[in-house]
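Lay summary. Proteins are chains of building blocks that fold into shapes, and those shapes determine what they do. In this project we predict the shape from the chain. Here is one chain we studied, written as its sequence of building blocks.
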Amino acid sequence: AVTYLKGRYREDDTFLEFAEIIQQEITNLDTFISGFLSTSMDDYDPGAVDLQGLLRRIETIISLQSAAAGVEVTLVCEGSLLVRMNRFQVEHALLNILNNALQALPEGGHVVIESSVEQVAGKEMVQISISDDGPGMPRGEVTRAGLSRISSDRRGRGFGLFLAREVFQKHGGFLEIHSEQGKGTRVVVGLPLVGESSSR
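And here is the predicted shape, written in a compact code that computers can read:
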């Protein structure tokens, strides 16, 4: 169907951009499901990925959804950083976090995605922060999701965040949530730069 539509609307550059994303995601999911059925998830080894390119792709993927919801998404990512990751797993973990933010925000809300390099436990890591000005998270959701690292004033949204945390921990990183009802939520994830150990 995507191949047909690409031919039908080949003059529409915006449609073609999203059709390419759909086609690539179909291929990614096919590869993921085939690998999941035949091997362990640990066989998906991390590699060097350009963070800026990944975040810009994610910004494009969610742009139609954010526009339909009337939510402004701002990406702040300066320079090119090579980060050690399995691109498929990390991309979809970040999309899960962003989808949570978009679903929680009313029209006119804002989401800010920022990246920085920080020293964490003696390692140089990239931190990606996803902040929204939504209603915040109800008390107890982090406990249900199993996010035990997060103290009582940090809260999570559902099982999806538990899986996202597992992805980042598997990569030698982390996921933390800071939330206050009525003041919004900030999710911070960390990943090792290329050259740093990703001790699991």
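What the prediction tells us: The two ends are 41 Å apart (CA to CA).
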